[in-house]
Amino acid sequence: MAQLRDDRMNFPQSGELHVFIPDIHLITSARRIEGGFKYGANNLDLLEAVVRSLREFRLGAAPAGEVVVYQIGDLFDLWRQVDGLDPNASAASAIQNDHASLLKALRDPDLNAQFLLGNHDYDLYRFPNFDAWQRSFVIAPSVMLLHGDVFDWVEKLPDELQNLVLFIFNANSAGTAGLDNMRPLNQQSRRKRKFRDFIQNQAPAPTGRWRSPEGGDGNWNVQVEGVAPPEMLLYLKEAREKCAAANSQFGSRLKVAVIGHTHHARIAVRDTPEEFFALMDCGAWIENCNTADDLTPRPNAQIAALGANEARIYQLSPRG
Fold it and tell me: From CA 193, how far away is CA 216, in angstroms rounded?
């Protein structure tokens, strides 16, 4: 679907592979019918098979290599499952029971997946079974991994920028108090939205021109600032600015941001003589996408991988 290979990503580790599973938005079957929601999660049998294959791949790679799997937010869709605050985590429990096999695979100790909180499952931090979930990871030396919803806040709440930088880049140690402080920002995007006909994209997300990974070893379907249309560059500027602020404030060397949230899979870059920065938006397992070659909607079913200065996004489909 897309591939970027560039040493300027400053992520040369050849013995590590990081795999990212984006937004799934699980709700119960009963709630989908009751709520009249157009979209459920796509191809869950395929997703479970992928997760189980990643477990075997991870075990087979050890000890010579390390495979780290991340689910990068909005695994659960608490916003669609219930209206308002859920004081007892009953919504999460209902979703887990409805998708027991998939959740068992994702939380298998042998897979050891790492989980991020998205905006639709942000409130999980309040409950013991989920309080180890994070809002961001820094994958040394150069990669910031986060759900991506914070970039909505950047545009709407400029007075919060300084706190937002601290929150993003200290998220692993922010604790419950920090998450409580940022919860009102998360809730603002929920207000007056019913999510019945769409969650992020009313039309299929455009993903550029595809070709098979066997079609070449170089970069392909990379959206370059100054050439690509603006919709293919969403959050590139915001991610670049926030990483630059963190580099200045914390002495980090971030050159790549990996996100979900938009349900719009793409790799976008700023590539000038002065600066290189890459955004990998991993897509989703809900709603649809299409290509410039074929406008027929197809269900989003994407995973992404990063290692040895190479980033790839794959669109999957069931066999047959």
Answer: 43
Total tally of structural domains belonging to the chain: 1
- Radius of gyration (C-alpha) of the chain in whole angstroms: 19
Identity at 276, one-letter amino acid code: F
Predicted local distance difference test score (pLDDT) of residue 227: 96
Domain with 217 in it: 2-315
In DSSP notation, 213-261 reads GGG-SS-BSEEETTTS-GGGGTTHHHHHHHHHHHHHHH-----EEEE-S
Question: Partners of 145 in the beta sheet?
Answer: 137, 258
Interior angle at CA 80, CA 126 and CA 71, nearest 5: 60
Residue 262 lies in a domain: yes
Q: What residues have CB less than 8 Å from 245, skipping those under 6 apart? A: 165
Q: Which residues contact 185 (CB under 8 A, 6 or more apart)?
A: 153, 157, 160
For residue range 136-177, list pLDDT tens digits in order: 999 999 999 999 998 887 666 555 555 666 666 665 545 677
| Residue 11 belongs to a domain | yes
User: Is residue 55, in this structure, part of any structural domain at all?
Assistant: yes
The residues with which 278 forms a beta bridge, in sequence order, are: 256, 269
Question: How much is the pTM?
Answer: 0.94
pLDDT > 80? residue 218: no
The pLDDT score that the predictor gives to residue 168 is: 67
Q: What is the pLDDT of residue 175?
A: 65
pLDDT digits (tens, 9 = 90+) for 98-117: 999 999 999 999 999 999 99
Token pair belonging to 68: 């780290």
Q: How far apart are CA 118 and CA 163, in angstroms?
A: 18
Alpha carbon 226 to its chain centroid, in Å, reads: 25
